[in-house]
Amino acid sequence: MLACTIFLSLWFWLASGAVVSYPRPAIYNKSAKYSLKVNGTYMYTVSYAGYDYVQLTMDQGHATEFRIAVVQETSITSYNISPKQLPIHATTDGNELVFSLVDAHYLIVTINDVKEFVILIDPPEVNPPSSSGSGIFNVLDYGADSTGGSVTSGIQQAMDAAAGSPGSTVYVPPGLYYIGNLLLRDKTSLYLAGGSVLRFTGNSSDYTTLFTKSGVGPGTWWIQTEFKSSNIKVFGRGTIDGNGYYSLNTHTFIADLLVPVDTTGFQFDGPLLRDGSFWTVTPIQCTNASFKNLKILNRQDVGQDDGIDVIESIDVTVTRAISIALDDSFSTKTWPYDTGTTVPYPNPPQPLSNVVFDDCLAWTVCYGYKIGQGVYTSQDSVIFKNSVVYNAAVGLGIDHRYGTSYVNNVIFDTIDVENLSGSNAGHATWLALFVESEGAGVGPISNVHVTNIRVRNEGMYNGILVGYNSSSMVSDVTFTDIYMLANTTPATTLEQMKILDISQTSGIVVLG
Ligand SMILES: *[C@@H]1O[C@H](CO)[C@@H](O)[C@H](O)[C@H]1NC(C)=O
Ligand SMILES: *[C@@H]1O[C@H](CO)[C@@H](O)[C@H](O)[C@H]1NC(C)=O
Ligand SMILES: *[C@@H]1O[C@H](CO)[C@@H](O)[C@H](O)[C@H]1NC(C)=O
Ligand SMILES: *[C@@H]1O[C@H](CO)[C@@H](O)[C@H](O)[C@H]1NC(C)=O
Ligand SMILES: *[C@@H]1O[C@H](CO)[C@@H](O)[C@H](O)[C@H]1NC(C)=O
Ligand SMILES: *[C@@H]1O[C@H](CO)[C@@H](O)[C@H](O)[C@H]1NC(C)=O
């Protein structure tokens, strides 16, 4: 009988499925442009600069209905759903766009000429912690102000207490928390419950200034790991809000929002990062770091707000990610010693290797997927795969601009370049692999495989393969299955790929 009851409840739970919409924090407004119903239930949308968004979690495996209403319009004359390659069959019903999804995806939807609506759907959380109990340090027990009324130190206090019990978790319940610099302690986890917001104040006097970026100003690492630490985790469905537009424009102060640095076994799963004022997520001198369900929603009117820059790190994976920014969405870099932004780095420059970006969605005014511009130490074995460029000036690139080291073994595999627009530093193309000199050295780029790429828009300018001189060439680049525009057969020549600016290269092969 008991077994039967358990079976029935399990059956009911599986059959009924679940959709979770996280309460919209009071500091954000609801979208004035779009509403979303999932299986008949309204989700909490958020109005934002440039685009609006909504975040939810759903069980996968059964068809779930999405109904997006474009609320100020009476009918739908055009729409776009990105990634275009997803098997989504949409219909219209008055001012509603209707489709179903079996699996969770990150989507960018436009209807008529209304701004983008970014729909962030995650699979259910795996083993979310309870809010109290053994190994749980709830920040409310450490006096954290969850009302946003003051700059609170309760989260750091809970973290410091947790550090005394390796393997424990700091629990942040729903609420608004303005915090100063936060140091993630060795062997602890930070859990941000859905509906919680950690917010940067923007006021430099609340932070330790760690570096100055030339041409921009002073900045900090807002949330960073302890040096020489291991097994630190940041997870949950809460929001990390960099308040970047305000911080940059009112206080001329910038921040990297999340900085795993000199740490091993770092894991990130789930929180949403928004409104960065500078490079938003920067693993620096890490080994074995993983990022999944990573959602970076920056504004496209805030300077150098790169999404994720993997810097001088080894064995890093970024999977199931969306990165919207004015500056580069997904990138790897290596920098000089003790200069500008690297002043707080704990170690001399380290090489970068084994970095994988998989199942990513990029939307930027600069580069979607990029290596560079800093190549002060080597960058070896970097893979970008199964990914999409919603829009960018340059889709895929290696820009060797600073430093004398090399880039070797790079794969761009199975990427859909949906659209390109505008230009960045004179480049506007689906592919730019080049070495340039800004007086800080040059170096070679070699062994690049560009495979199974759909290029739906060629960009305004030519693609480029340009080395610098005979010791800093672009060499051994192989193209396979590059589908230009609507072509169903792959390109067989560089001309067909509109790659027409070519110099200082060797071993360029188009396999078709
Ligand atoms: C939505 O409803 C359908 C039909 O009842 C069900 O099969 C599916 O599991 C539901 N989806 C979710 C995520 O609850
Ligand atoms: C929310 O809407 C109110 C009223 O229109 C406006 O004053 C406020 O600036 C908005 N806040 C945000 C974060 O957009
Ligand atoms: C910044 O913080 C300092 C110290 O708390 C305070 O005196 C100052 O008024 C704040 N400035 C703004 C613009 O909030
Ligand atoms: C990498 O880090 C993960 C998460 O901390 C850990 O489980 C795994 O054992 C580490 N792998 C190696 C090779 O150290
Ligand atoms: C490409 O992007 C530009 C600029 O955002 C936009 O005007 C154009 O409609 C887009 N094209 C397609 C096919 O989406
Ligand atoms: C290539 O240019 C760099 C930077 O100017 C220079 O140091 C190097 O010697 C040059 N290599 C050759 C073979 O000329």
TrEMBL record:
The keyword Metal-binding is annotated on this UniProt entry: no
Keywords: Disulfide bond, Hydrolase, Secreted, Signal
Pfam families reported in the protein's UniProt record: Pect-lyase_RHGA_epim (PF12708)
One term under GO cellular component: extracellular region
Superkingdom in the source lineage: Eukaryota
Signal peptide: 1-17
GO molecular function: hydrolase activity
InterPro entries assigned to the protein according to its UniProt record, in alphabetical order: Pectin_lyas_fold, Pectin_lyase_fold/virulence, RHGA/B-epi-like_pectate_lyase
Major location (coarse): secreted
Localization annotation: Secreted
All residue ranges annotated as the Rhamnogalacturonase A/B/Epimerase-like pectate lyase domain in the record: 136-227
Tagged with keyword Disulfide bond: yes
Annotated PANTHER family: PECTIN LYASE SUPERFAMILY PROTEIN-RELATED (PTHR31736:SF19), PTHR31736
Protein name: Glycoside hydrolase family 28 protein
Protein's organism: Oidiodendron maius (strain Zn)
